[in-house]
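Data availability excerpt. The first of two example chains:
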Amino acid sequence: MPPILSEILKHYHIFGLLNLFLLYILLLSYSHKKPTLWYSTFVLSIVLDLFNYVGLFNLFFYSPNFTLAYLPWSVFTPISFYKLTLISHNKKALFHKKVFQLLLLLSGMMFSYFFIKSYYILLGDLTLRDLYFLTENSFAYIEYWIIKIFITIIQIVGLTLSFSVIKRQSIKPNKDIYYLFILLGIITSLSVMQIVQDLYLYPQNILSAPNNLYLTIVTTGGLIIAYQKIIGIDSAKRKSSKTVTYNKLYELDFERLKNIEEKILSTMEEKQLYKNRKLQLKDLSKEVSTSENNVSEVLAKQFQTNYYDFINSYRVNEVKRLMNSEKHKGYKLIAIAMEAGFNSKTTFNTAFKKSTGQTPSEYKKSIFL
């Protein structure tokens, strides 16, 4: 393996970087909200991660402080921020949020303990340093493994909760997800190459420092899940797009028809157009400021009728009203029909019986019984 690549592999803090890339992909696929915030926090997280690894890596060589040298609190803060933000986006994931908040609380308590311990022992009584920090003492080893186990738990649980939440939530991806997916793939490949190198050159590292092994397995699994999510997103996005488009068109069409319907009804009531014996479809269309096709469509869809039956229904109601008025008691039926808008006796008789089930004469007799 080339020396430069070997150095790159050696100085990559796989745990932090892979988590950051994976979580950032999930966040980008989850929402378009506040992209500047996500980008800024992402860059800050990488800086903190590299500082944590390189800085504490050097500290390990100049101090036997095994516990402090492997205490990457600075990088887990932004990682946890990503996971908590992701989980909090789903309002239904209250249980997930409470579980992760509990883990973060325990994490904060542990951080406070080690911070106070480091301050009072390293900067205070140096005689206690060997007892509490030298790696040859069992107390330091116990603390080290407690940290390792707890950090592993909070990371795996955080990832699991994040995936569980995002799996149940609708996702709105953008093109950035594909670019970051490629970056995640590259870094995952680097970690796999590191493990292959360790297997051949430093097999003892697999057992003594298994971070790269099991974390690569975890994050590679995340990579596969992310890829499957992308494939699912594309398919769901196409289906969702068609559904949304259809729904929007339906809503627009319904609103358009409703507006025309209201115009027709108000115009018929206010102007009593049906009394015009020469009224045609084009006249009604002109009055409501729309096309003849639109009027016919509204009558068919909203009233389940056609133009002639619609107009004649108004005329029949007007005839019935006039028959009951004192003023028109002596009027002949044909005269009343003409006043209501009918232009022939045949049309009047047909429309009246179709509407009431009776002839005009039968109806008139029934109201005076």
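And the second chain:
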Amino acid sequence: MQDADARYQAMLAHDRRFDGVFFVGVSTTGVYCRPVCRVKTPRRSSCTFYESAAAAEKAGYRPCMRCRPELAPGRAHVDAVGRLAALVVDRIEDGALDEAGVEALATELGISSRHLRRACESELGVSPVELAQTQRLLLAKRLLTDTTMPVTEVAFASGFASLRRFNALFRERYRLAPSDLRKQPRAPRKGDAEAAERHGLVFELAYRPPYDWPAILGFFGARASAGVELVSEGRYARTFRWLSNEGWLAVSASDDEARSVLRVELSESLKPAVAPALARVKRAFDLAADPIRIAGDLGKLAEQRPGLRLPGSFDAFELAVRAILGQQVTVKGATTLASRFSHRFGKPIATPFPGLERLTPTPEHVAEARPEEVAGIGLPLARAKSIVSLAAAVRDGKVSFGPRASYESLVTQLVALPGIGEWTAEYVAMRALGWPDAFPSSDLGVLKALGETSASKARARAEAFRPWRSYATLHLWESLSALSKATATKKGGKR
């Protein structure tokens, strides 16, 4: 939606489909808002529209205290330039510019710094440095509003190397001191007291409705590795590691569905890693997706479950190991093996959740294990060798889940390893990269749902689903699940 008048109409309707797609600067107040903001809608003549919060701040606007632009969902892209810009946003959220500069980020992405700057300017209206500054400030604003962290901790957790620089930039952009923002009253949220008992920090992450929370929670729940993950009482919890920071996180849906947010709780030990932890939640739960657009393009296939999201991963190596463990066994069997694997090779950790007690094993640790040790969890020796080979390849950089990885390159790297076939590689690449147009054509469920007998025929059929073949895959799997439930109900009725 590029037309300014159309964007104004979306504002008038408070249309959540466009939340995070654009921001509006209001000249009469000097404030910029999300299109879903509930304050009195300004006149059209007072509105200027921007592609990003950073572009609005570059133009001199400060964030609205009511709708809080830092809570807006991200944007998903399918074109090359848009995906590059989204990748830059992801890496900056991970702190890529906190220690190094634009040149280093460009090298990491395998492009020139000029191309990197051009992509950011084209899609977001700002340079990478300006984007990073806004990301840090908005994270700081969120921490000041939603936590009781000391201002000094907020500054460093937001990526600032200097408290003085943080205070100066915050005052320059937002026209108040960080401590002044904290003085403003905040209504208590449901669950805050419970989180405080667990020494947790509570955040909210927005999405564009519809969002099929039961489906994605059920997906993760069926595959949860006991010790590392736990799904219970409508909540997904897991242990989490970022560099030297170790802790836990928990994700649940808001009781108020109309607010379109997920509730995220982080352990206090993850204070220095708030930004990357929240970024991982966004990707794992596919919060940047545009479900209306996806369902519209997929047509009849998506009619029954338009809110399906692509389940991502918190740790790509963990996902790849899980996929190998799942070869030729049931989902339940693979889950049992994954739990044994994490208890054998994962580091112990204390959490307030009973049974959540292991960090996921690292490739560096697993690469040093003998295949016979891995086989000891109940695996054939050949499959154990595959896991050790994968760990060594990730450790040595021969398999990369990093920002330069494309779906095609990752599949190629994975199938070159012993014991990893086309299906395993396609499945891992689809979820690890959050690739919207992946298609595991050899998947038996996909073939059955399409009524095809060969991967080549399935690929030909799937051309109609571009650029959303990953989502089409989810809908095909879901159609089989629905058929299975309907059949079971019918048989039960006969008895």
